[in-house]
Automatic annotation (TrEMBL):
Signal peptide: none annotated. Keywords: Cell membrane, Membrane, Transmembrane, Transmembrane helix. GO terms for cellular component: plasma membrane. This is Drug/metabolite transporter (DMT)-like permease. It is a multi-pass membrane protein. Residues 6-139, 150-285 form the EamA domain. InterPro entries: Diverse_Substrate_Transporter (IPR051258), EamA_dom (IPR000620), EmrE-like (IPR037185).
Length: 309
């Protein structure tokens, strides 16, 4: 397998594993656990795994004093995004919640335009309108009832928090910190939010059945550690843009497991909404490459000069 093919495979794996969040979280909810307890254990179990990975690569945990505060903010943003997403599962089908979450790249584009004065293009406007149309189609659940406004707002808060994190983590103040170390400290500082929310362990709900610990461990490994590793490796092989485009598999995976494992309804309207959102995000991520691709395609069919009579 050549490097490019391996990169695409890794990117697809990263997206698919992140879409497994509902698969492992919903059974924990059904057992009586809440979002705070589930996420507390998810972060708690993922941190030592990442620590082992850092030591295995021969790195240390040192960070500069000026990097501590930005990492705390990044950690709180990620934990807030996780919390609001997992809470939204209580109000709507997990597959739809995960699909709505995938508007975060569009929010990133808007932040870059408003805050950093990047030029807005017609393609960006078109993609935003397309995504909003997709959200409109998803604003009813499989049985035809309108989705909970609270659930929708929670997902939008999750997407916005993650979008701010995506913009912030690429700022110069963290440019000297290794990606693996950033993730380690983001999870470490993010854990503090859930530690407070479970009253420092007083209101923590511990799984009563032993096999539910496999769900918690799976949450720490698949959507967290494996997804991160594959994303990082994929970027090294094929770059960030193709890796991000394959991130469209995240909501597809979530919907797939929602339908197959939990019997969630999948209608033509929901499918259309998903397609619109995925197309919008794919176009806005790949927009800079579209013109180049069209020019290359046009060169395959050169004009034949017309001979004058």
């Amino acid at each position: 397998m050549n490097g490019k093919a391996k990169g695409y495979l890794l990117a697809a794996t990263a997206a698919a594993t992140y879409g497994m969040n509902p698969l492992f979280a919903l059974p924990l909810y059904q057992s009586g656990m809440n979002a705070d307890s589930v996420l507390f254990f998810r972060y708690l179990l993922a941190i030592p795994i990442l620590g082992i990975m850092i030591k295995a690569r021969g790195r240390d945990f040192k960070i500069k004093r000026k990097e501590i505060f930005p990492l705390i903010i990044m950690g709180l943003l990620v934990s807030l995004s996780s919390l609001t997403l997992f809470q939204s599962y209580n109000f709507m089908e997990a597959g739809i919640a995960s699909t709505l979450l995938f508007v975060y790249p569009i929010m990133v584009a808007l932040i870059m335009v408003v805050v950093f004065c990047e030029k807005v293009t017609l393609l960006t406007v078109f993609c935003i309108l397309m995504a909003l149309s997709g959200i409109g189609l998803l604003f009813k659940s499989g049985d035809g009832s309108t989705l909970s406004l609270a659930g929708t707002l929670l997902v939008m808060a999750s997407a916005l928090s993650y979008a701010i994190y995506i913009v912030g983590v690429n700022r110069p103040f963290l440019k000297d910190v290794a990606t693996l170390n950033i993730t380690f400290y983001v999870l470490l500082f993010g854990l503090s939010l859930f530690l407070v929310r479970v009253d420092f362990g007083i209101s923590l709900i511990i799984p009563e059945k032993w096999y539910l610990w496999f769900n918690l461990l799976a949450l720490a490994i698949f959507p967290t550690v494996i997804s991160f590793l594959c994303t990082t490796s994929a970027i090294q092989y094929i770059g960030s843009t193709p890796t991000a485009i394959l991130g469209a598999l995240e909501p597809v995976t979530a919907v797939f497991f929602g339908v197959m494992a939990f019997g969630e309804a999948l209608t033509l309207r929901i499918i259309s909404g998903i397609i619109l959102i995925i197309l919008a995000v794919t176009l806005i991520i790949a927009g800079s490459n579209i013109k180049t691709s069209l020019v290359r395609f046009r060169k395959l069919f050169p004009r034949i000069p017309i001979k004058k009579q």
